[in-house]
Design brief:
The chain is α+β, with helices and mostly antiparallel strands. The chain has one domain. The strands form three sheets. Strands 7, 8, 9, 10, 11 and 12 form a six-stranded antiparallel β-sheet that branches. A four-stranded antiparallel β-sheet has the order 2-5-1-6. Strand 9 and strand 10 form a beta hairpin. Helix 3 runs antiparallel to helix 11. The longest helix is centred in the last third of the chain and has 19 residues. The radius of gyration is 19 Å and the shape is globular. It starts with 14 loop residues before the first strand and ends with a helix. The relative contact order is 0.24. Bound molecules: protoporphyrin IX containing FE (HEM).
Length: about 325
Amino acid sequence: MANPQNGIFALGTASHAYLEFDARDGAGEELVGAVAALREPRTTMGGVNLVAGFRPELWRAVAPGHCPAGVSGFAEAVTGVDGYAMPATQHDAVLWLSGSAYDVVFDAARGAIAALSGIAAVAAETSSWPYRHDRDLTGFIDGTENPSLVDAPDIALVPEPGAGAGGTVLLLQRWVHDAAAWEALPVDTQERVMGRTKPDSVELADRPDESHAGSTDQDRFGHIFRRNMPYGTVTDHGTVFVGFSAEQGRLSAMLDSMAGLTTGVRDALTYYTRPVSGAYYFVPSIEALRERSAGGSIASSALASSSREETRSLA
Ligand code: HEM
């Protein structure tokens, strides 16, 4: 049986970093091997979850038979009605690190970048943190319609015995909020935009079809597992959308719907927040990843040193 990368399901972590990498010319295969060789710091306390994914075409070229047919990168912008566009900013690999505090995430991220230097460059970096326990920066509770951890693997993971079993398709998008426009709305208008109540996330009895929850309705498009996080500074912030699915089609159908391609009407939320990045990654099973691991001792030594530092600071 193929096991998923554990960090996908590690809830409750207060600090996150998303690093996207581009391989240097011709170094795609080497990058996969080096990423596969990365190891999180070994500790029973203060650990870091490390989740690695790859541009689907790159992973398929390196690991044929370990990628579901048809999964592809975010090659073109999703162009919706009124010239609305969700940009494509695909890179070769992603690392998602999460932990209890930013110091451990920071050290592990720096170790990973050092281990990959010479093979790949960081193309994008975002760090994120929870806001008021379970709210995104719209002030609404985010994740209400997520599956529980008991059900999430069935929704997020490619089932046995298919190619890529135990892996998952990740959609990573950074959305910048227009906080001034959003906060100028009365709360009942915000609730109609979202389709749920603000204090306690109850679905509106007369939920508008163009509300965000209406235009991503999982009864229509299939279920996904979201790990969204707030990111940014006081003056420039938003949401990192982090969505996992066993099938890419569920995620892309939701984006099409949000852009207005399904009904001709855009998701009401898209008037208050705008995507500035978009990439799909295939996040393989632990076993498929381990098989591709190259020179583990070199790649892991940089992370091991941050682990030693951490152990010292805990002592
Ligand atoms: C700025 C970006 C986004 C924000 C702030 C946001 C926020 C929210 C909130 C507050 C909810 C309602 C509570 C819940 O069920 O979690 C929700 C629901 C949902 N969102 Fe988003 N979201 C964003 C982008 C997206 C994107 C890009 C997708 C899909 C590709 C998506 C998929 C969903 C789904 C599937 C639901 C549940 C719908 C249902 O009721 O079945 N969201 N989102």
